[in-house]
Amino acid sequence: MTDSAGENKIDQAASGLNKNVFKDFALEDLVHSKLESFIDQIKGYEMNDLYPIVLERVERPLIQLVLKKTRGNQVRAAQILGINRNTLRKKINQLKIKIKKPFIEE
Fold first, then answer.
1. What's the CATH number where 51 sits?
2. What phi and psi, each to the nearest 5 degrees, are found at residue 23?
3. CB 72: neighbour CB atoms within 10 A?
4. How many domains are contained in the chain?
5. CA of 87: how far to CAs of 42, 45, 47, 59, in Å?
6. Does pTM top 0.85 for this prediction?
7. Which domain holds residue 106?
8. Would residue 35 count as lying in a domain?
């Protein structure tokens, strides 16, 4: 899939034109498999804050990738993510995502 095809699918999903656009992606299966492996690795360790750790590990690359696809356009990235631009800006700061136009740090 080319970047433009991927961007078109993201644009469709973000605009609500095709709510089933992610139906074909096995994202949930992939996440399930990775989480299962991660949880197996942490057996024996006392863990009281797994939820925020997992969310941060997923949220950071998601935001980075969307910013990369939008060439750092935070307004467009926020639309694609379905969040307010101020919320996106807050998350960028919290997750210490560096924005260097035209590239986003990975």
1. 1.10.10.60
2. -60, -35
3. 15
4. 1
5. 31, 33, 28, 13
6. no
7. 1-16+47-106
8. no
